[in-house]
Design a protein that fits this description.
111 residues; 5-stranded mixed β-barrel; 5 strands; mainly beta
């Protein structure tokens, strides 16, 4: 099966470089370098990711409305931030954590 996405000339869909990452209001926003100039885009990602200047993302939008819909190249440490409790489950399998150097765990209480 082949999927083709056609856009109009006024719609941008492609890679963009993060110039600045910032939180504004209710959603996270980043400033992007696009072929046509600089734009502010809202993050529309499945997982929360802390982007930083220099990261390359997949952006879509037109005029004043842009969205980041993917991360193509992340330069730094991957940080996932959640606003509340997080639970990891493997109901029919195992959970494995491995690291090349070490694993750090920090909390006021460990149970």
């Amino acid at each position: 099966m082949t999927f083709t996405l056609e856009t109009t000339p006024d719609v941008f869909l492609g890679p963009a470089t993060v110039l600045e990452a910032k939180a504004e209001g209710a959603g996270n926003r980043v400033q992007l370098a696009l072929p046509s100039g600089v734009a502010v885009a809202e993050l529309a990602l499945a997982l929360p990711v802390n982007l930083q200047a220099g990261d390359v993302v997949l952006a879509i939008g037109k005029e004043e409305r842009y969205y980041v819909i993917g991360v193509l190249h992340h330069l730094g440490k991957a940080t996932f931030t959640f606003p509340a409790d997080v639970e990891i489950r493997a109901p029919r399998g195992a959970v494995q954590i491995s690291a090349g150097k070490r694993v750090d765990v920090s909390a006021p209480e460990l149970t």
